[in-house]
Amino acid sequence: MSGYLTVTVAYLLSHAGVSTEKIATLIAISFIPHTWKFLWAPIADTTLSRKTWYMLACAASAAGIFATGALPVVESSIPKLTAILLVSNVAVTFLAMAVESLMAHSTPAEEKGRASGWFQAGNLGGSGLGGGAGLWIAGHLPGAWLASAMLGSVCLLCCLGLMFVQEPEAAHRREGVWRNMTAVVEDLWHVARSRRGYLGLMICFLPIGSGAAANLWATIAGDWHASADTVAMVNGAMSGLVAAAGCIIGGYACDRMDRKFAYGLYGVLMALCAVAMAFSPRIPAMYVCCVMAYAFISGLTYAGFSAVVLEAIGQGAAATKYSLFASLSNMPIAYMTVVEGLAHTRRGASAMLYCEAAAGLVGLLIFMGLAAVSKRTLKTPDLAADGLVVG
Questions:
Q1: Fewer CB near the terminus (10 Å): N or C of the chain?
Q2: Residue 366: which H helix or E strand, with range?
Q3: Which of 127, 141, 115 is nearest to 307 (CA)?
Q4: 330: exposed, middle or buried (C-beta count within 10 Å: 0-12, 13-18, 19+)?
Q5: DSSP structure class, residue 167
Q6: How high is the mean pLDDT of the chain?
Q7: Average pLDDT over residues 242-256
Q8: DSSP E strands: which ranges in the chain?
Q9: Contact predicate 208/298, CB 8 Å
Q10: What does pTM read for this prediction?
Q11: How far apart are CA 284 and CA 311, in angstroms?
């Protein structure tokens, strides 16, 4: 869903004369369900099985991809496209909840980093491969609807993976709806009030390694004189594979160091990459190199995020707890996409990249300060090991 929008649809809209600012706003709107999904996450924890939610959400997501490609790629289609994206991304949230819950219940503590890496490898890899394939198909076959129909069909095949996963115990589905919901809220509050929990929530909300610039690579490709085939290749298959490799490496690294520290380190690398791209010559070769480096670092940051969350939430009402963290993490992606789109429209590509780097570094400094303050105020030694060691 996200890959088809940020690569295929964004590139086609850009070449149809739609401004980067409007495209960025459209992409940011598609994140709205992901920033509020914790509100309906208890439904996934207390009603149908995880596998059932996955299959229903997968079918709805596939239909959303097809509907997105069925619209004419013109500026007048943006209102309808916005409505389709909002509805279909609500379905995507339930699909994500099902996966996250299955993963939280099935992963040993010492392997949460590895599991996070593979989880995000599928996420970013699928986004890159799907977006690149969609743009290539749209550019070589008549009608964008063919690309969306093919990608939607491929999404349905993901349900085959459920045959290899065990359905976990339904801990929050045993009693009435009210008691189930109460148990979910209590579980969530227990996590949020712990140092590990609230530091995890804070690091998700701040724009550390948000990766928002990746949502606009297709729209700013013209600044580096990159062709449609180059954009499809770099932001598609190549980006997906490189990001997947970054996810796996980043996940394994998170099992060998403090996971919050790893996430912060990955955010610094992303800021440095953005600055390097701003200084790079405006030629297609540098566009390819910088986007590839950014994709790899994005893989690191996504794996780091999931490792931090899995460490913080434990089991129990996993879908609700993971969704709260994921909702917060999608907020900086959404607001930074809008901010960077405005920066590009008004000041150019370099300003957009400097904006991302500055926001990421400021966010990291804020988090380090909060972590240091909270560590000094702890009264029990067992909580002192929960968070990032600063200094």
A1: C
A2: helix 349-376
A3: 115
A4: buried
A5: P
A6: 83
A7: 92
A8: none
A9: no
A10: 0.74
A11: 41
In tens, the pLDDT along 269-294 reads: 999 999 999 999 999 999 999 999 99
Decide: residue 100, CB within 10 A, 0-12 exposed, 13-18 middle, 19+ buried: buried
How far is the C-alpha of 206 from the C-alpha of 366, rounded, in Å?
8
Q: Which of 126, 157, 147, 181 is nearest to 11 (CA)?
A: 147
Write out pLDDT tens, residues 104-136: 788 888 888 888 898 889 888 888 788 888 888
pLDDT (tens digit per residue) in 80-95: 999 999 999 999 999 9
CA distance 212 to 338: 9
Amino acid at 291: V
Residue 65 contacts residue 357 (beta carbons within 8 Å): no
Tokens of 331: 């907020």
- Taking the mean position of all CA atoms in its chain, how far away is CA 235? 15
Residue 218 near residue 14, CB atoms below 8 Å = yes
- Separation of alpha carbons 67 and 25, rounded Å: 19
Tell me whether residue 198 is exposed, middle or buried, using C-beta atoms within 10 angstroms of its C-beta: 0 to 12, 13 to 18, 19 or more: middle
Span 212-224, average pLDDT: 89
Polymer length of the chain: 391
